[in-house]
Amino acid sequence: xxxxxxxxxxxxxxxxxxxxxxxxxxxxxxxxxxxxxxxxxxxxxxxxxxxxxxxxxxxxxxxxxxxxxxxxxxxxxxxxxxxxxxxxxxxxxxxxxxxxxxxxxxxxxxxxxxxxxxxxxxxxxxxxxxxxxxxxxxxxxxxxxxxxxxxxxxxxxxxxxxxxxxxxxxxxxxxxxxxxxxxxxxxxxxxxxxxxxxxx
Length: 200
Known about the structure:
Organism: Isoptericola chiayiensis
Protein name: GNAT family N-acetyltransferase
Pfam family, one: Acetyltransf_3
Distance between the termini: 39 Å
InterPro entries: Acyl_CoA_acyltransferase, GNAT_dom, Ribosomal_N-acetyltransferase
Domain N-acetyltransferase: 19-175
Shape: globular
CATH architecture: 3-Layer(aba) Sandwich
Strand content: 25-35%
Number of helices: 5
Radius of gyration: 16 Å
CATH topology: Aminopeptidase
């Protein structure tokens, strides 16, 4: 599949290129990204080069991992404000096609609703029969990652529970939260925000 651009009045999603290597390397040294994702830590420029020239390029070529850089509206090559992607999940032959969403946001772009706006574009495409046509799109986050959970909640993901020692981060097993959205689900909050969540 050839990479393509997704747009809304709030954001533009375009595939990251070699021109984004320095910005990705800078952003991925952020302590919160290191804490809540599986990116290498410490993160180097070589890591950013490998991410863009190998993972991103091969993912699109193999139609397995679809990754976009989140940018300001109206530009396909502006500064990277975040990253958003969908990965196909392998299942039994003949089983319904499912995927997993993933995202991070640059520190200087947080609190502006950009990740939620980008997520709406990607969720709609992933579940649309004329898009990827997934029958289930799931969200995973390490337990305690409330910013990620808030985005998923706004996008209509139904919280399904906690999976103990399910997530692997740089050699450590961690507990995962899991949620999912299906094609016919309402893509807006449908559950109360958890009472135990800290104020944000």
